[in-house]
Design brief:
Elements: H1 2-35, H2 41-44, H3 49-64, H4 72-112, H5 116-147, H6 150-154, H7 156-161, H8 163-173, H9 175-190, E1 198-201, E2 204-211, E3 215-220, E4 225-229, H10 231-235, E5 239-240, E6 248-256, H11 262-274, E7 279-291, E8 296-304, H12 307-328, H13 344-347
Antiparallel strand pairs: 1-2, 1-5, 2-3, 3-4, 6-8, 7-8
Length: 367
């Protein structure tokens, strides 16, 4: 009976202490968060309560498992399992704490920053730093778990001796992956593209939604997700409409008849722009940019705060100008002539006279 009660007592005591310590830590975090609402770190640290309790429970059981007086074989097995759980729980806790610190730092910076472009840059950098830290913690945790097995400890010397050869082989085999990883770091700290930027890549227009160490996700205007390797952005040209300043200039081209009232059309464009919220008031213009034997090309220019506004403004201006011309000046719209050319008859020569008819009657001068 004692062989059963001792392990249960050790397990129950460890769980009880873990619950009490976890409740106390949670209570302290809540009090600090209530006193300092401007600091989001204490609120974000609530995510760490589950891995923290797991670390406490595993550490207590690992330290007190000898008190359970298990058999030697069972004691080694339990100690090994608890060691693995403790290593995994510590890695989980480290990842959660790092994520909380990174998110809190970014939130405080974003709350006081005035430049949206700089905010997006910092967000991209902290996101990639968080991913690097997570990957490093996972690698160290897995390596530590493997080293707890006796077979891995015996092979450790040979693994270290052949580390150079393995590194060379792995570098050759995974050169594309390593290239993407270094490209991701270059993007993060080179300020080439940031989360939230509007880009045009491979004829795809969209917004950068996610950046990782190996790939980048662009959300297009029709809500598709285009996944591309980050090495694409370091080796090929692309358009970034949000770099530095999100303001943009847009154009609308119209093909009209030569008799189109350009001055009145210019006034109509100004009236349309003044009545819209998308126009930022920086600049506007309407000029004739080209002419052909049948039409003229008119370019309307306008400005907006960002790419979304400039797209909506271009569509609105195009629709309003075409509708106004069709309603007020229909002659200004281009027409296709279907009448024959005026010189067609002259090019064909004078009309032929019919042959003279035979004279069957009396001629002139006859009686």
């Amino acid at each position: 009976m004692e062989q059963i009660l001792r392990p249960l007592a050790v397990l129950g005591g460890a769980v009880l202490i873990t619950l009490v310590a976890g409740w106390a830590a949670d209570r302290v975090l809540r009090l600090i968060a209530a006193r300092h609402p401007e600091t989001p770190l204490w609120r974000l640290l609530h995510r760490c309560r589950i891995p923290l309790r797991l670390v406490l429970c595993a550490a207590l059981l690992l330290g007190a498992h000898r008190s359970a007086e298990l058999s030697e074989e069972h004691e080694k097995t339990v100690a090994h399992v608890l060691t693995l759980v403790l290593i995994g729980a510590c890695a989980w806790l480290a990842v959660r704490v790092a994520a909380a610190v990174v998110e809190a730092t970014y939130a405080r910076y974003a709350a006081g920053a005035q430049d949206p472009a700089r905010v997006r840059r910092v967000r991209t950098q902290v996101t990639l730093i968080q991913r690097v830290v997570t990957a490093a913690v996972i690698v160290v945790a897995v390596a530590s778990m493997l080293l707890t097995f006796p077979a891995m400890q015996t092979a450790g010397a040979s693994l270290l001796a052949s580390a150079g050869v393995i590194g060379i082989v792995a570098g050759i085999a995974a050169q594309s992956t390593l290239g993407n990883i270094f490209a991701g770091l270059q993007i993060a700290f080179g300020d080439m593209v940031r989360i939230g930027d509007t880009v045009v890549v491979d004829s795809q227009w969209g917004t950068v939604e996610e950046i990782t160490l190996t790939y980048l996700v662009v959300r297009t205007w029709d809500e598709r997700r285009v996944t591309m390797p980050v090495s694409y952005f370091t080796g090929r040209p692309f358009e970034n409409w949000s770099r530095g300043d999100a303001r943009m200039t847009g154009t609308v081209f119209l093909h009209l008849d030569h008799a189109a009232p350009v001055a009145l059309l210019r006034e109509r464009l100004h009236d349309v722009l003044k009545s819209t919220l998308e126009w930022d008031g920086r600049a506007w213009n309407l000029v004739v940019t080209d002419t052909t034997p049948t039409t003229i090309q008119v370019r309307a220019l306008m400005t907006a705060r960002n790419s979304d506004d400039i797209w909506a403004l271009r569509c609105l201006v195009r629709e309003e100008l075409v509708s106004w011309l069709g309603r007020e000046h229909p002659y200004a719209l281009p027409r296709i002539s279907t009448a024959p050319a005026p010189c067609a008859d002259r090019e064909a020569g004078p009309p032929r006279t019919p042959p003279a008819a035979e004279d069957t009657g009396p001629g002139p001068g006859t009686a």
